[in-house]
UniProtKB/TrEMBL annotation:
Domain NadR/Ttd14 AAA: 11-214
Domain of life: Eukaryota
Gene from which this protein is expressed: LOC108564736
InterPro entries assigned: CYTH-like_dom_sf (IPR033469), NadR/Ttd14_AAA_dom (IPR038727), TRPL-trafficking_regulator (IPR053227)
Segments of skewed composition (Low complexity): 419-429
Organism annotation: Nicrophorus vespilloides (Boreal carrion beetle)
Name under which the protein is recorded: TRPL translocation defect protein 14 isoform X1
Stretches the record annotates as Disordered: 413-439
Length: 463
């Protein structure tokens, strides 16, 4: 059953390396959504707020101070550290302050009568990029936090704006920013740390420098609209597309992968009116889960497919399971998320119980604006990628979950790409003729292709 339209509060994190376009991106998003009639709130960067109040990294202890200085974007904080304070406590308090400031804006969004976009200048997981993994785990443990709550459930989407130091070096500059003094190599390191911190979020987009700056801004706004399910035609996403690849096993050893996050994922299709598709997703790790309701709408044949994703509670999830479409099996996956060459990848590994067609199946997905040749150079070399299957109906999760055999199922869904290919093949096949008329054998074939029931070799037709 379709969910009724209601007021929306969309929480977005803009993060990234130095000179990545975050400030301009915020401005573009504000203008775009205010023109749509939305209310837009901008949450300030907490570290900048504290630094403007007189906090100096030079007041922190030497070991932590050096690490914090290394990751700081403020040139006033690069003096020699002195062992007078504990930077770990500062980082913990910074995170607490960030959460409280964000909560204030989130509450304003909740009480606002209009649709509301809340743009956070960095988010909770950015703090993990500035300290060791052990210290990050200690902060979470001491405060009863976990990654699923801080990363997945807290924000609807993460946008990482890749630093110009990585792929557009000729445009990297520190001249126009009073709190920026990094060289190109340090900027690349900071960019990588910030990107890695968010690996695992279900809606994470890395906006690289594969196009000019205006194209980068368009892709950034377009990725937000696409995740929100807003129809923008093709004016924003001309260069960005979702790609899917078939991967052969066996799965490489963990050490072959860059830093990754693994998740348990469960998909359940609900009853819906064709051609719409409605599904639930349960996704989590270490016993903590997030829940998403997705409505997939196709307005017309060949039209833009819109997916509206809504975060729901565990209680809503349990209640909606009563609407399960029994013609579909529940899909179980292990989802591995990782970054390679500034591309964010999700590797879905299908698990039991499953339909035999899904046994051993592995599919790799990414969003990219790169051309085909460049993208293939950026694909993970440690995976045995067989072929691209983007738009191939046989690898649609909707079809993979069908209980019935595809040859007899009336619910098998064909993508626009497959329909167009089928039409082209039919147009290319000439109809054989003898003296301008079909011969007896061709009549038999044509009738068979039109699916009448043929009784024996006599060719008697049952209508």
């Amino acid at each position: 059953m379709d969910k009724p339209q209601e007021k929306r509060v969309y929480k977005l994190v803009l993060t990234g390396g130095p000179c990545g376009g975050k400030t301009t991106g915020q401005s573009r998003l504000c203008t775009f959504f205010e023109n749509l009639g939305w209310k837009v709130f901008r949450v300030p960067e907490t570290a900048s707020v504290l630094l403007s109040g007189g906090v100096k990294f030079s007041d922190l202890n030497e070991d932590e101070g050096d690490q914090m200085k290394k990751n700081s974007s403020c040139k006033h904080c690069l003096s020699t550290a002195s062992p007078t304070n504990d930077a770990l406590v500062f980082q913990e308090n910074l995170l607490k302050t960030m959460i409280q400031i964000e909560n204030t804006f989130f509450e304003l969004g909740r009480t606002c009568k209009r649709n509301c976009l809340i743009i956070c200048d960095r988010g909770a997981m950015d703090a993990s990029a500035f300290i060791s993994k052990d210290k990050w785990e200690k902060i979470k443990r001491d405060n009863g936090w976990n990654d699923v709550e801080l990363r997945d459930n807290r924000y609807n989407q993460i946008i990482h704006m890749v630093s110009a130091a990585n792929g557009a070096e000729e445009f990297y500059t520190t001249e126009d920013h009073s709190c920026r003094s990094e060289g190109v190599e340090l900027a690349k390191e900071l960019d990588h740390n910030a990107a890695t911190a968010w690996v695992g979020h279900p809606y994470y987009d890395v906006i690289d420098n594969s196009t000019d700056f205006e194209g980068k801004m368009r892709r950034m706004v377009g990725s937000v609209c696409q995740k929100m399910g807003l129809d923008t035609g093709d004016r924003l996403l001309k260069n960005s597309r979702k790609l899917k690849f078939l991967v052969n096993g066996p799965l490489p050893a963990d050490e072959k992968f860059p830093r990754f996050q693994d998740f348990e994922v469960v998909h359940t299709y609900l009853q819906s009116n064709s051609p719409n598709q409605v599904r639930l997703r349960k996704r989590g790790q270490k016993g903590y889960f997030s829940y998403i309701h997705t409505m997939r709408r196709q307005r017309q044949a060949g039209g833009q497919v819109i997916e509206v994703k809504t975060q729901i509670t565990h209680r809503d999830y349990i209640n909606l399971l009563a609407q399960k479409d029994k013609s579909h099996l529940t899909i179980y996956k292990k989802r591995r998320c990782f970054l390679v060459n500034n591309q964010y990848f999700q590797l879905d590994i299908y698990e039991e119980p499953t339909h035999p067609r899904c046994k051993g199946l592995m599919l790799l997905e990414t969003y990219s604006a790169l051309d085909e040749v460049t993208l293939r150079k950026c694909l993970p070399g440690f995976l045995n990628i067989v072929k691209e299957v983007t738009g191939n109906s046989d690898f649609s999760m909707y079809n993979l979950s069908l209980r019935e055999d595809w040859k007899t199922s009336k619910k098998y869904w064909r993508s626009d790409a497959d329909q167009q290919q089928q039409q082209q093949q039919q147009q290319q096949q000439p109809e054989p003729r003898t003296n301008g008329l079909p011969n007896g054998l061709e009549v038999y074939k044509l009738l068979s292709e039109n699916k009448p029931h043929i009784n024996g070799s006599a060719g008697l037709l049952k209508c």
